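Standup notes
- DV: blocked on the single-chain target, sequence here:
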Amino acid sequence: MTDTLENQSQDNLETHLAQVQSLLAKMRLVEELVHKQGGPRQDLVENLVHKQNLAELQRKLEALHPADIAYILEALPLDERRLVWSLVGAENDGEILLEVSDSVRESLIQTMDKAELLAAAESLDTDEIADIAADLPHDVIQELLTTLDAQKRARLQSAMAYPEDTVGALMDFEMVTIRADVTLEVALRYLRRLGELPDQLDKLFVVDQDELIGVLPLKRLLTTDPEASVAAVMVEDFVKFHPEDEAHEAAQAFERYDLVMAPVVDIQGRLIGRLTVDAVVDYIRESADADMLSMAGLKEEEDLFSTVWRAAKNRWMWLAINLATAFVASRVIGAFEGSIEKLAALAALMPIIAGIGGNSGNQTITLIIRGLALGHITPANARRLVVKEIGVAMLNGMVWGSAVGVFAWLLYDNPALGGVMALAMLLNLLVAALAGIFIPMTLERIKRDPAIGSSVLLTFVTDSMGFFIFLGLATLLLL
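- DV (later): unblocked, structure below
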């Protein structure tokens, strides 16, 4: 059922995007035709047609949720994105800026003046302002701080002070607190007086002079005798976080304990905020996107439709590293030029050894990065993991090494060449397994993101060692 709803939601998003793209294409086509027709009052006619087209597009946008508009903006080239953004209602600017990716948000902010940015930020909650604060101009932030009351200003400054990947950066301040000495009937009357409750609210926080002493799940509040006291019903053993806790550890806790929301407390145990499942889901999605880009050596902030110059600069660092490693691999081949001249089949078979090694290493490195991210790999089990991956590499090496060995034997009618292929395949798969384990684990140990550039380093190792092992064995055993 959940998968069906997700598919329908995605289909709806794609339908909305297609409709907006169709309206944009229609707008360009109609305006080009009007422009070519010429005639009296040409400018007036073109202006009227342009306004009609914009009105039609604006009506479509007004019917969409801000999150859907954010999805559409991310999928549009820069010129169309700016046009659509100019038609969005000002009351939705803040929510859309919050929903889009960092790179797209930057491109939208560049089109807004100070007054528009202030209006957009003021429409957001304190924690939401903190999420986009890094992309706002400094003078906008300073003026925004002067417009907030003392409590909101203190909360915003506190949220902005925490590093990006911590619980403090993800928490919000929409909490419902209650004392332990009141009855459940009093608690229910209090909720009714509030009227509107915070999103993702599944429990009330029980406090004593700001110190968190328990939580009251709503299901207990609704199903227990109203005359019972909060102290008698509240849960005293509950999951809580500190603002300095790592966000990925909090995300794992949410998954492990099926949490909807959890309190955030300071060192003294005082309640300062809450962490909700929607913030955690957003963090997980953004982290997954960043990891996927990082493995290919791309920076997270690249916009799909950024300028050629900016996109090229974003990719230069790892391309330069890749070029350097490719030179090393080429020198490995160069060292065996004489062997290749004597047996031309070596040149044709080299890519097989390197390619299979790279694929096998990518399987291992993906497994290890996932294990590190989930906290499953520890000093206590690392050795057994290495032994297991070596065993997998040996088994695959014997099976697929034998297959490529037979292939080379039959293709070149040379059993010795087949034997060299089989042995080289086995050894390179062992190298790939070790590289797939130790590259991300080494990056983790030196406090670097294991996903950043791991595949580039792995390719260097499997290519260079694959060429060296295969050509070295061929030189020793065949020539």
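- Follow-up: The CA atoms of residues 26 and 53 lie 8 Å apart.
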